[in-house]
Task: structure prediction
Amino acid sequence: MKTTEQSGLSVYICRVTYLIVKAFHIIFVVTWFAGLFYIVRLFIYHVEAGSKEQQVKEALEAQYKIMEKRLWYGITWPSMILTVCFGTWLIILNPVLLKFPFMHLKLTLVVGLVCYHLSCHRIFKRLQNDSIGNLTSIKMRVWNEVATLFLFAIVFVIVLKQQFDWRWGLAGLLVLAGLIFWMVKAYQRKRRK
Result:
């Protein structure tokens, strides 16, 4: 009788541990995306500050550098690392997940998101070193929406799992990308007027 109770308690503890790890994974996914969305928004403002008069430009750039640095190293990097750690822990606790095609797609998208994060880090370093170069407001606005595409794709893959036909998903993602690109271009035209 005790072994049955101990076994039940062990299963319960494993289940609760899995759910706690999953909750932390979701929390850090949210903070990671928040950091990615906001850092590129700061990049946009930082680049746009370059067109201001010298005194205003210097003050804005100094302020944006501080804000970017605090956000990047205080929230975005730790959130990415913790997202990956808790996600890996989930797979260790439930390795059966790796047998499902939706998980392969999700992990591929996560690798793409990490590459996006690393690209943002390169931009961050450039701006911290006053090397704006060919960065423009419109390029940064388009770049800002790449994280949106990753967010939509990852969430839909996880929510729909096996009920998802990748061809429809890809078509939907392309439509969303086109819509976002059109909106950025419309915003640019409106600003020029």
Remarks:
- Helices lie at 2-49, 54-93, 101-128, 137-160, 166-192.
